[in-house]
Design brief:
Elements (H helix, E strand, L loop, with lengths): L1 H16 L6 H23 L5 H22 L7 H25 L8 H16 L5 H25 L5
Helix pairs in contact: 1-2, 1-3, 2-3, 4-6, 5-6
């Protein structure tokens, strides 16, 4: 059941491709993707049906959802240069964390910290808030939390503390 829910996120993401950004249809598919992301892991754990395949499928579904969301939203948003620079800094920290994990621990490590989850939630909510909160204000909060989260994740990776 959980893999069906995860697969639905892929379908909803594909349907988002055929809708104008910020339209009712876009938001409906977007929210269904978010709902499926919250439900699939919870159901898998509660029914004791979690698996490596399900985890990989979830990662693939997340990637497709993020890629489609960015493809639809970024072209219609005006993102100031300072924000692009901050996003690039966060990306560099995250990439260095991946490299650090590969060098120090000999494997890919992605920490599921509370701050990483909060960052993900805020990023998910961002398109839903753009009509009543200016991007420059919400971006400062999200980028500050994402920066802290990336630094914290790197610390955990380099010190050997793993969050499971």
């Amino acid at each position: 059941m959980s893999n069906v829910i995860t697969s639905s996120r892929i379908l909803f993401s594909i349907l988002m491709l055929f809708s104008p950004a910020f339209s009712t249809w876009f938001y409906t598919m977007y929210l269904l993707c978010g709902l499926s992301d919250m439900l699939d892991g919870t159901i898998a754990r509660r029914t004791n049906t979690d698996s490596k395949f399900g985890a990989r499928l979830d990662t693939i579904a997340d990637f497709i959802f993020v890629a489609v969301s960015l493809t639809k939203v970024l072209p219609v948003m005006h993102i100031p240069k300072w924000l692009w620079l901050w996003i690039i800094v966060i990306a560099i920290i995250k990439i260095s964390n991946v490299i650090s994990g590969l060098i120090c621990r000999k494997r890919l490590i992605v920490e599921h910290t509370i701050m990483n989850k909060l960052t993900g939630l805020l990023l998910f909510l961002l398109p839903l808030t753009l009509y009543f909160v200016k991007l420059k204000y919400s971006a400062i909060i999200i980028c500050a939390i994402a920066t802290f989260s990336a630094i914290q994740e790197g610390h955990y990776i380099r010190t050997g503390r793993e969050i499971v």
